[in-house]
Design brief:
Elements lengths: L2 H8 L3 H13 L3 H9 L6 H14 L8 H7 L6 H12 L9 H12 L5 H14 L7 H14 L2 H13 L1
Helix pairs in contact: 2-4, 3-4, 4-6, 5-6, 6-8, 7-8, 8-10, 9-10
């Protein structure tokens, strides 16, 4: 770790986060440090991915090169915050390459999980929907899974589910 990422462990005021976002936009090499810290098991690791998400809002082209590593690492992330932000970023881009069965199952598991926060479940749903453009074989499974998730799901699941079902 560096002094830059050490700040995430020590404190996380809004001013510090915004300062780290601005620094990362001005010095894109800092994103490599954030990414490396963001995939650790440190309890503050999710903040690094959150900063990358905020950088994406300002300069998405800086984050695009991390999408493939995000796909490769998301399954081993433990913190819901890490998964939520990584899934969100993956959902915003065309999928890099061919998804593995393991990755697809991971997204279905997240969507099914009542323990995962709503945002992560919604992003997994969006990724699965995005993948139906290239893998139409699992449209029916996705439709059934979304309908099931919507039965007892919170408003965020029902809202995204309705939008996706209309286009499936």
């Amino acid at each position: 770790m560096s002094a830059f990422t050490d700040l995430l462990i020590e404190t996380s005021t809004e001013g510090l986060i915004l300062s780290m976002v601005n620094s990362s936009v001005q010095q894109p090499s800092l994103l490599d440090e954030l990414w490396q810290f963001g995939i650790t098991t440190n309890p503050s690791a999710w903040k690094a991915i959150w900063i990358m998400d905020k950088v994406h809002d300002i300069r998405p082209e800086l984050i695009q090169r991390f999408i493939k590593p995000m796909v490769e690492n998301v399954e081993r992330l433990k913190q819901s915050g890490q998964k939520r932000h990584v899934l969100k970023l993956i959902s915003l881009y065309p999928f890099p390459g061919v998804p593995t069965g393991s990755f697809i199952n991971f997204c279905f598991d997240i969507l099914h999980s009542k323990q995962e926060p709503v945002a992560g479940r919604v992003h997994a749903m969006q990724i699965l929907y995005n993948l139906t453009a290239t893998i139409p074989e699992f449209k029916n499974e996705l439709r059934i899974t979304i309908e099931d998730a919507m039965l007892e799901g919170p408003p965020g699941i029902r809202s995204r589910g309705q939008k996706i079902l209309r286009t499936l």
